[in-house]
Amino acid sequence: MQAAITLLLLCAGLAVGRPAVQAVGPCTKLSSSTTKWDVVDFGYSATSDSSAGSKANATTTDGSGGTIRFRLANAAVEYKANCSAQSADGPDFFDGKREYACSVPVQGDKATFTFSRQTGRLHIKQMWRCAKEFTGFQAEGGIALNLTCGEGGQRRTSSPLRRQTAVSKILCDNSPLSVPIENLSAFA
What we know:
The structure is a single chain. Helix content is 13%, strand content 52%. The protein contains 3 helices and 11 strands; from the N terminus they run αααβββββββββββ. It has an 8-stranded antiparallel barrel. 24% of the residues are buried.
């Protein structure tokens, strides 16, 4: 794959009138050989606060939500993207369909992710540029996480005039992990 990307960049550099040598610098070489991301400080939490109504099977959900956070490291760039999202779409909160943006410190670079709590699949997309070399890269990949989760709950009982409320919280953490890049393309 690295040879194909290097050839593409050499041709692109010539097509726009730049010397080919300039198109293949250290950032481009490192980017074209990047095979994974490192995900650090991954955390998922969910809180469900359900109140039992007057009917035995009626349940309303108030104050429920899920949060995901992690830092994304790519050996080809000098920064870590900060990725986080919140959702109130229960019961799993993250269905893998909505794309969330990560915060990156370099203007023009971009990182996004999707996460499915049900399958544990984390999917990442990233675009970065080698500005001094007039090249850029787009990468996409993912992994099914094997999360270690703990569930805690407490029951609060209120006066007879108020409803009984059950609160449960799920916390998941994962040690640092590698996410394979499944598709890498270059642009000039």
